[in-house]
Design goal:
Double Stranded RNA Binding Domain, 106 residues, 2 helices, alpha+beta
Length: 106
């Protein structure tokens, strides 16, 4: 599984990149059915505003193109790490839902 990380409006520090790779890389075990070696996961981390210090200033989006359906999850938060963890949980739920649907179609 290849993880592409893109930042918008902020500097992607090595610590943020490592955190994303650890959190999102853990999803590989849920994607084994879909040949995770060929999957590309796009993660976009954006700072939505430069002049606010409180509230939802970070927006995280994950895109995974699974066979038959692209999965997308978004999260916003005032702490980038919390938002990344939240979006990971959302995309995991989408993966599990998609796995259930493909199992039913067999």
């Amino acid at each position: 599984m290849t993880i592409n990380i893109k930042g918008s409006g902020l500097d992607l520090t090595p610590a943020i990149k490592q955190f994303v790779e650890e959190k999102i890389g853990g999803l590989a075990k849920f994607l084994e059915k879909f040949n995770p070696d060929g999957l590309i996961v796009n993660v976009i981390i954006a700072r939505t505003t430069n002049h606010h210090r409180h509230g939802d200033v970070y927006q995280i989006e994950i895109n995974i193109n699974l066979p038959g359906k692209p999965l997308i999850a978004k999260s916003e938060g005032e702490d980038v790490r919390v938002a990344i963890s939240d979006v990971r949980d959302k995309i995991k739920a989408e993966i599990m839902k998609h796995k259930g649907k493909t199992a039913q179609n067999r």
